[in-house]
Design brief:
Layout (H helix, E strand, L loop, with lengths): L1 H13 L16 E3 L5 E9 L9 E6 L3 E5 L6 E6 L7 E6 L2 E6 L2 E6 L5 E6 L4 E8 L2 E6 L4 E5 L2 E6 L7 E8 L2 E8 L3 E8 L5 E7 L8 E3 L3 E6 L4 E6 L7 E4 L6 E6 L3 E7 L3 E10 L4 E12 L3 E7 L2 E7 L5 E4 L6 E5 L10 E11 L5 E11 L2 E9 L2 E6 L6 E7 L4 H13 L3 H25 L1 H10 L20 E6 L3 E6 L5 E7 L12 E8 L2 E6 L3 E6 L5 E6 L4 E7 L7 E6 L4 E4 L9 E6 L5 E6 L6 E7 L6 E7 L10 E3 L5 E3 L6 E8 L4 E8 L5 E8 L8 E5 L2 E8 L2 E2 L2 E2 L3 E10 L27 E9 L5 E4 L10 E6 L4 E6 L15 H6 L27 E6 L6 E6 L3 E6 L14 H35 L1
Antiparallel strand pairs: 1-65, 2-3, 3-4, 4-5, 6-7, 7-8, 8-9, 10-11, 11-12, 12-13, 14-15, 15-16, 16-17, 18-19, 19-20, 20-21, 22-23, 23-24, 24-25, 26-27, 27-28, 28-29, 30-31, 31-32, 32-33, 34-35, 35-36, 36-37, 38-39, 39-40, 40-41, 42-43, 43-44, 45-46, 46-47, 48-51, 49-50, 51-52, 52-53, 54-55, ...
Family: Belongs to the EMC1 family.
Pfam families: Beta-prop_EMC1_N (PF25293), EMC1_C (PF07774)
Main location: endoplasmic reticulum
Length: about 950
């Protein structure tokens, strides 16, 4: 017995202490596409991170308030920081060994190599512009007109605005002077000259008629602006007493842009169909601006870049089709031209093109250009060219995904089923010939590769190597890990992502054209209406049917009005019906021509902030209001939460430790309504029965901060939601922090009891015979903010569920086991034997974040807003996709992968064990046989 105990202890020591993901197992099933958004041209530049660096990095501040450093070699992100809420514009500048950026009221300096914060300063006003004086010393222009000098994060001096009515525009640095430019209402342009050393102000005014569409551009040597709605251009050389120089703008101009270096300024003209440039030289001694040359007009929507290299200024011109031209600053002669290896498809505009030019021997040049583009539906995509050849691209337009839908790929067996269906419509001889022909074709097509790959497949199986999928395209893999996520961008683009292949883009399609982009209202929802077909409902009242495998439009029809909401009705069969609610509560069914087999009940939001239930007649589609939900006068509806479309329930009850059963309150029509009251700082939770409008449960949370996120998710018979609570409620101390509440609905508060509906074969929710649930609730303090919640789902619903929580503070997603959030956890006592057998733990008011439950590991997820899940073919596995900023996908197994062998399973060891047992049996068998024979002789003799 003592020997057995020692052996058992040794075996237990060999077992893993925790159930965590090993380092070599991470990043195998998950994928991450880090996105930053559309680059701001004036805040994008090539910059050497250190003075002696051999190569530059690309630094950019985007419209999503993300400052990023990009490796120009492969387009990978070296580092990035989210500096605002994702909606604020900002500015960034290069400094010696650093990058300095300002968003809203914050100015921060980051190390150019690794992105570490060097210093930061926060102002009472928002920052309008900043310029680097030298080193890490900057001048900051605030929205109140003040100019502040900041040195290493400390304010050296502040120069107030000369006139509080002036509108600040920009800053320039020239020697020891800081120039501030202000637009004076009905007067002109004010130039404030400030000493960089003392902050002493001297000011001057220039007569100007600057309209809202006019531009003001400044550099170290010149300020240029347009007047009278793009009808005239004026130049003024800084640091001189010369007067402004006027240049007439050609007719038909719709936009004027400026690019400047120390000695050159380029004026970029745009018409509806053409673009060209005028290049001027700057004489700082005489204070004059002289025309150097003109570039002949080419196609519109192009971009110029003015680059200084050594003592020379170079100009690059990038066209929408990918062509590029390089010019010097002296003449219009083309120094070099670049033809792309493939033209940009579709209707593309070049938003910006930032170049780096390095002259080489024999009048050769190395030119790298970072290009940001915009096309209908896709805004902000970027790519880099090296001497005209595309090196890499980044799908930055997918940062604005607002809706998604899962698309199931075809089962490989369906390919054979189609052929069998063909054979079924032929006579016996024809079907036999067809099958022989098919088998012969398959043998010729797939046979050689199949036989050739046998040794490799056998070795991969024994060595536990990754087995590559033989099926591709629209055919799913064996375990159903490959699915398409069809997503819609805010600008009207559609894209299909293969989540089983690291989010690879399968196809892209635009729902809008450049002409109607201004009237685009967005995608309301995307549905898989039939196998391989998605239906897209837009707020503007247009319905599209798209081939989900090819990205081709099958149908485009007007719905008949602006869309308020929509829902898919599970009618069974191969196709689904989408019900759309239009203005005036009119109903439309999609695809057109669809019918209702029976009356439907839907819930819509009223124009007065209420909620109402409608009965839809299955013949006329006329609606009748069945109930309404009107919040209190000081309340407003914050959000509405439904159960997931795929939410199977494997068990109608929860088996307790003593083998009794708590029966779940199962109702497919459960609906959660969250309301907020800013006047009384409270949030209310209502669980409604959506057919009858009966309130099954309600909870009031006083002291809730309504300015912070309140989010919820539902599944089966339970609800999880979060909010931020204050430290005092009704003058009583309370738990300040983020609260996570779980509520679970049962038929009765006692085990083994059923509700009155149990024996009923039919019941009517409108008659009120649905019973009232018994609700168990518990609340926890969570250590950080949660902005989105989701729940895992599997094919049959047998696997334990996990609650997925998005935490922006740590840029991660955590998976909380539902067992951890069981509201029946014993309070202020240890669980008894039955509760321990059930898996219940003692209630603890605070939930700690287990690092092992972070499903994105060390990957940093920025800007994500939504988490959606779908089941795989394996019951143990749920597929996750998160979007809204970065794109992230992974697979989780809440109950461990119980239906598939893991990578650690050694087939070689298994075969070796079998062979060893066979050899052992071979040796032992003769001995046993001899012993049996001898025993028989002994029995006979005895």
């Amino acid at each position: 017995m003592r020997l057995f105990s020692r052996v058992l202890s040794g075996v237990l020591l060999l077992l893993p202490a925790v159930n965590a993901v090993n380092k070599d197992e991470a990043y195998q099933n998950d994928w991450h596409i880090a996105l930053i958004g559309a680059s701001i041209p004036s805040s994008t530049f090539f910059h050497r991170p250190v003075l002696d660096a051999k190569a530059s990095l690309i630094y950019t501040l985007t419209s999503r308030s993300i400052l990023a450093a990009i490796n120009p070699r492969d387009g990978s992100i070296v580092w990035r920081h989210l500096l605002g809420d994702g909606t604020s514009q900002g500015v960034s500048r290069k400094a010696e060994g650093a990058v300095i950026a300002a968003v809203d009221r914050d100015v921060k300096a980051f190390d150019a190599v690794d992105g570490k914060l060097i210093w930061e300063t926060t102002f009472a006003e928002k920052v309008k512009d900043l310029q680097v004086i030298g080193g890490s010393i900057v001048a900051v222009l605030l929205e109140n007109g003040s100019v502040v000098k900041v040195s290493e994060g400390n304010i050296a001096w502040e120069s107030p605005a000369a006139d509080s009515r002036d509108i600040p525009q920009s800053l320039s640095i020239q020697g020891n002077n800081v120039f501030g430019f202000y637009q004076q209402p009905s007067k002109g342009l004010r130039i404030a000259t400030i000493s960089a050393e003392t902050g002493k102000l001297s000011s001057s005014s220039i007569s100007a008629s600057i309209q809202p569409i006019d531009r003001v551009h400044s550099s170290a040597s010149i300020v240029a602006w347009t007047e009278n709605s793009l009808s005239q251009i004026k130049f003024l050389v800084l640091g001189t007493k010369a007067s402004a120089i006027s240049v007439a703008v050609p007719e038909g101009i719709v936009d004027v842009k400026f690019q400047a270096s120390d000695k050159t300024i380029l004026v970029h003209y745009e018409t509806e169909d053409k673009s060209w440039a005028e290049v001027y030289g700057i004489d700082r001694k005489k204070g004059s601006v002289n025309s150097l040359y003109s570039l002949d007009a080419k196609t519109a929507r192009s971009a110029f870049s003015v680059t200084e290299s050594a003592t020379e200024t170079y100009i690059t011109w990038t066209l929408p089709n990918g062509e590029g031209f390089l010019y010097g600053s002296k003449s219009a002669d083309v120094l070099d031209s670049y033809t792309p290896d493939s033209e940009n498809p579709g209707d593309i505009s070049v938003l910006s093109a930032i170049s780096e030019v390095i002259p080489k021997m024999d009048k050769k040049y190395a030119v790298r250009t970072f290009v940001a583009t915009s096309s209908p539906g896709f805004h902000g995509n970027t790519y880099l060219t090296r001497n005209g050849k595309s090196v890499w691209s980044r799908p930055e337009s997918l940062v604005s995904v607002t809706a998604s839908a899962w698309v199931e790929l075809l089962d490989p067996a369906e390919e054979v089923a189609e052929e069998l269906n063909v054979e079924g419509h032929k006579n016996v001889v024809g079907a036999y010939v067809h099958r022989l022909t098919r088998h012969a074709q398959e043998l010729v097509t797939y046979g050689p590769d199949w036989f050739t790959n046998i040794p490799k497949r056998v070795m991969d199986a024994f060595l536990s190597n990754e087995i590559r999928e033989e099926k591709d395209g629209k055919w799913r893999d064996l375990f159903g890990f490959r699915k398409y996520a069809v997503v819609a961008t805010k600008e009207g683009g559609l894209a299909a992502l293969d989540v089983g292949k690291k989010g690879a883009i399968v196809w892209e399609f635009s729902l809008v054209t450049s002409k109607d982009a201004g009237q685009w209202e967005g995608v309301q929802q995307i549905y898989e209406v039939s196998k391989g077909t998605v239906g897209v409902v837009t707020y503007g009242g247009i319905y599209y049917e798209i081939d989900a495998f090819e990205g081709k439009v099958l149908t485009k029809e007007a719905i008949g009005g602006r869309v308020k909401s929509s829902a898919i009705l599970g009618r069974g069969g191969k196709s689904q019906v989408v019900m759309v609610v239009l203005e005036g509560d009119k109903i439309a069914l999609l695809p057109p021509g669809s019918t209702l087999g029976e009356p439907a009940y839907i819930v819509v939001r009223g124009d007065a902030g209420d909620l109402k239930g409608l009965r839809v007649d299955n013949t006329t589609l006329a609606t009748v209001k069945t109930w309404d939900f009107v919040p209190q006068s000081t309340e407003k509806i914050h959000s509405i939460v439904n159960r997931p479309a795929h939410d199977p329930i494997a068990s109608i009850g929860k088996v307790l430790g003593d083998r009794s059963v708590m029966y779940k309150y199962i109702n497919n029509n459960l609906l959660t309504v969250i309301t907020t009251d800013q006047t009384h700082s409270s949030a209310s939770i209502y669980i409604l029965e959506s057919v009858s409008g009966i309130i099954l449960y309600s909870a009031l949370h006083v002291g809730a901060d309504t300015t912070k996120p309140i989010t919820a998710t539902m599944s089966e018979n339970w609800l999880v939601y979060t909010y931020f609570g204050s430290e005092e409620v009704n003058k009583e101390p309370a738990a300040k922090g983020y609260h996570l509440v779980v509520s679970e609905l049962f038929e009765h508060h006692l085990p083994n009891y059923r509700s009155p509906l149990h024996p009923a074969k039919t019941y009517s929710a409108l008659a009120g015979s649905i019973g009232r649930p018994h609700v168990c609730s518990q609340s926890y303090i969570f250590p950080t903010e949660i902005t989105s919640l989701g729940v895992t789902t599997t094919k049959q619903g047998i696997t334990t569920r996990e609650v997925l929580a998005l935490m922006p503070w740590s840029s991660s997603i955590i998976a909380l086991p539902k067992r951890l959030l069981d509201p029946r956890r014993p309070v202020e006592r240890e669980p008894n034997e039955a509760e321990r057998e059930e898996g219940l733990m003692k209630y603890a008011p605070a939930l700690e974040i287990d690092p092992r439950s972070v499903i994105n590991h060390k990957q940093e997820l920025l800007g994500i807003t939504d988490i959606v899940t779908t089941p795989a073919q394996l019951e143990s596995t749920s597929i996750i996709f998160a979007y809204g900023g970065d794109l992230f996908g992974t697979r989780v197994t809440p109950s461990m992968p119980f239906d598939v062998l893991g990578k650690g399973f050694s087939k070689i060891q298994l075969v070796g064990t079998i062979l060893a047992l066979g050899v052992g049996v071979g040796f032992v068998a003769p001995m046993v046989r001899r012993k049996q024979i001898n025993q028989r002789w002994l029995d006979l003799v005895g």
